[in-house]
Amino acid sequence: MHNERDVMRGRGKPAVADAQVEVLTIGHSTLPYERFLGLLRRCSVTAVADVRTAPYSRYSPHFNRDALRKELGHDGIAYVFLGHELGGRPKDKQLFRDGVADYEKMARLAEFAKGLNRVVDGAKKYRIAMMCSEHDPLDCHRCLLVGRALHAQGVTVRHILFDESLVDQAAVEDRLMELSRQADDDLFASRDQRVAIAYRARAAKVAYVENKSDAGEVAAMEQRA
Predict the structure, then answer these.
(1) What are the tens digits of pLDDT across the range 20-43?
(2) What is the pTM of this model?
(3) CA–CA separation, 134 and 28 (whole Å)
(4) Radius of gyration over alpha carbons of the chain, in Å?
């Protein structure tokens, strides 16, 4: 059985991806554990990297961190919590813009880079799925923040959907541009610029909104877990 210390140890310098490095993502939503496990096995996942800031689920307690780690361990799948490094709910008020988490600022943090390095290093040994709660990748920072950053490093990022299909980050970007009306060629904006606009627009709609009561709620959940 794997333990958390054995999975994805960090490195002091940026990990360099190559064409063979692939990372999957999945959102647990309100799935029964057996269905969630079936999706992981369908995709040959051997390790789950939990990127939730608060690794608890009010409506699906089997996805609480300790319960999930235990169940996955019984089923031969490693678990590591990376919510401190790669979570989508920042504590620093400077990482918000108009009360909404600013993914572009968060992506420049040293702690975020450390988390990416751990994922890239781990993906060379494990078949990793980064996990958060939202079903649709376009509603979740695992895609809009972490997946985008890994894709920019040359990592192949693919998202597991509930119909058992896989969609890669490049296809996600095409969908983002359609949603933000950036798909058509623009004489004055490159594709990279239009992709950046599309990410920014989507994040403004779905990223975490600052709430002063959240810190107390998370602390209470940690005491009960």
Answers:
(1) 799 999 999 999 999 999 999 999
(2) 0.85
(3) 7
(4) 17
